[in-house]
């Protein structure tokens, strides 16, 4: 990508933010979708100012889901800025006597690397919830943001704003199942998560492993990395571990004989809960209740049946804040 192209891509990312389109034409113009003049403007009742701000007065977006930024892309963007300046203004908001970044973190990092003292910014008064949505939406389009960072961003949003999977999906313009499926990846064991971060296994592999217990996840994850199992072969290996299907080796051999690499499954679809697959009391109705509870609470939910009319519901939580959020949802639904 050439220098102009790198900054043009950043500009396109700002224009494409779904939360901005949701708020209408004015904020879309603010992000660069339309021409705007220097000075003050009104967007959604808020005053927007366009000016240059010292880079040391701009703090990071606290809702930024990205933990690491690739050095090569920052260097490439810095080269563009050194030649052409910052073509697309950063979006910021006032915060404790300084400014807080809303969109444009790579441009800010590159500008600092070049040695610029000030950068063009557009200043807007917006609430935390929208800033968080912008940060998520901006990074969803980045292929180098791993699925666990996306999943954690979704979980953090739900916990912080006492939201639901359905509300977040609607605000981001995503399918509810997409958000729910990402969040479920946080239930994987830590060794498997490390393999995802190292790109040793794909998102499709990870989704297949979700249905196994911790030890089985780790063992099959190692087999995937060692033998280069496809997603299709991994899914068959999972079924074999559950006593329902051929081995991963047989599956891989079948693919080779057919001359076709195993296809990646639909990223928005995860397998049904296999733990109840052999349980005659785990009906499609019970499974649908599991799915509804998971979507409503934004966390892992299991129903263990003991006979036809008895059982227990298990709801996962990892922090006291998440516990309080879940209890709040249950109370409001009562």
Automatic annotation (TrEMBL):
InterPro entries: Chromosome_partition/occlusion, HTH_ParB/Spo0J, ParB/RepB/Spo0J, ParB/Sulfiredoxin_sf, ParB_dimer_C, ParB_N. Residues 51-140 form the ParB-like N-terminal domain. Residues 240-267 are annotated as: Disordered. One of its GO terms (cellular component) is chromosome. Keywords: Chromosome partition, DNA-binding. GO terms for biological process: chromosome segregation; positive regulation of sporulation resulting in formation of a cellular spore. One of its GO terms (molecular function) is DNA binding. Pfam families: HTH_ParB (PF17762), ParB_C (PF23552), ParB_N (PF02195). PANTHER family: CHROMOSOME-PARTITIONING PROTEIN PARB-RELATED. Belongs to the ParB family. This is Putative chromosome-partitioning protein ParB. It comes from Stratiformator vulcanicus.
């Amino acid at each position: 990508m050439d220098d102009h192209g790198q900054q043009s891509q950043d500009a396109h990312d700002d224009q494409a933010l779904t939360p901005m389109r949701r708020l209408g034409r004015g904020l879309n113009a603010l992000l660069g979708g339309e021409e705007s003049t220097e000075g003050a403007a009104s967007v959604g009742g808020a005053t927007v100012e366009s000016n240059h701000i010292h880079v040391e007065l701009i703090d990071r977006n606290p809702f930024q889901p990205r933990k690491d930024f690739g050095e090569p892309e920052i260097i490439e963007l810095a080269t563009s800025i050194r030649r052409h300046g910052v073509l697309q203004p950063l979006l910021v908001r006032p915060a404790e006597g300084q400014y807080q970044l809303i969109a444009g973190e790579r441009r800010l990092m590159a500008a600092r690397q070049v040695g610029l003292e000030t950068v063009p910014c557009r200043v807007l008064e917006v609430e935390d919830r929208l800033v968080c949505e912008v940060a998520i939406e901006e990074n969803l389009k980045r292929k180098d943001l791993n699925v666990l960072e996306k999943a954690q961003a979704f979980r953090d949003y739900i916990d912080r704003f006492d939201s639901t999977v359905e509300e977040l999906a609607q605000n981001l313009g995503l399918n509810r199942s997409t958000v729910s499926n990402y969040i479920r990846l946080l239930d994987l064991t830590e060794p498997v998560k490390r393999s995802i971060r190292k790109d040793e296994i794909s998102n499709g592999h990870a989704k297949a492993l979700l249905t196994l217990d911790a030890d089985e996840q780790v063992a099959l994850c190692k087999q995937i990395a060692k033998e280069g199992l496809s997603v299709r072969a991994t899914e068959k290996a999972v079924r074999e571990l559950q006593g329902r299907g051929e081995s991963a080796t047989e599956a891989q051999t079948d693919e080779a004989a057919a001359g076709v690499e195993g296809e990646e499954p639909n990223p928005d679809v995860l397998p049904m809960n296999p733990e109840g697959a052999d349980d005659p009391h785990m009906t499609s109705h019970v499974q649908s209740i599991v799915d509804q509870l998971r979507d409503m609470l934004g966390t892992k939910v299991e129903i263990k049946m003991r006979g036809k009319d008895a059982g227990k519901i298990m709801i996962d939580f990892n922090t006291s804040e998440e516990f309080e959020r879940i209890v709040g949802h249950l109370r409001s639904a009562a």
